[in-house]
Amino acid sequence: MSKLLTVVYSLFGVLLFNASLIYFILLISPMLEAELMNSGTVIPFFQALTINIVLIILFGVQHSVMARPRFKEWWSKIIPTHLERSTYVVISSVFMILLCVVWQPLPDMVWHVEEPFAYWFLVFLFGFGWLFSLYATFLIDHADLLGLQQAFSYWREKPYIPVTFQVVSVYKYIRHPIMLGTICGLWATPSMSMGHLVLAIGFTVYILIGIYFEERDMIKTYGDVYTTYQQNTSMLFPFFKKT
Q1: Domain ranges (residues) in the chain
Q2: Model confidence over 102-125: pLDDT tens digits?
Q3: Which segments of the chain does DSSP mark as H helices, in order?
Q4: pLDDT for 65-89, tens place per residue?
Q5: Residue 96, class by beta-carbon neighbours within 10 Å (0-12 exposed, 13-18 middle, 19+ buried)?
Q6: Phi and psi torsions of 191, nearest 5°
Q7: Cβ-based burial of 3 (10 A; exposed 0-12, middle 13-18, buried ≥19)
Q8: Among 3, 35, 61, 99, which is 20 to 30 Å from 213 by CA?
């Protein structure tokens, strides 16, 4: 693939990622959940539940397995290094869109908050969670995370320099602020339907499993530096250190 096509492909991955993420956020948003997540033909409960759980598992397995170093080592024999991250972003985005499009409505309400202060506080937490997650990606290099840095390094014929381990801003207090923001965005809602609850539980379980494997990889990569960071910094919630 030419240098120009490499950059175009990487930019396409970024646009697809943003589109899939916005679609997902709108799907569970307090304002649009009824129209997007819970609209359409309602099929039998256990059939819908099975389909939704399979969609979560497919996304979780793809997203987690392709991020593991052993898979990347094998994958690099097929995909050039400068395209590896962009390809991961494209495939992850496709699975996210698939989840949103195929998701089956489970409209029964688990809880519904009408008290104005509580309602708007939960709406605020929803928005804050996703913005906090986005902010945390920029702290560790947003362009590198989405594969842009790798593509532009190839285009400029400069060696790609991986992001080094740094403890900055909110990372001084929690090790996984991206995941904390995502969990907040998943659970903070004034109207929790059964479908939303299934999605929130499924993604929270996936996040916790993903953190376990990610931290194991980080220890292999950074050794005692990361182990010390683990011991002195909470995983998700400030002031709750690892025991």
Answers
A1: 3-232
A2: 999 999 999 999 999 999 999 999
A3: 3-27, 33-36, 45-65, 69-75, 81-102, 116-139, 142-145, 148-155, 177-187, 194-222, 224-232
A4: 988 888 888 888 888 888 999 999 9
A5: buried
A6: -130, 100
A7: middle
A8: 99
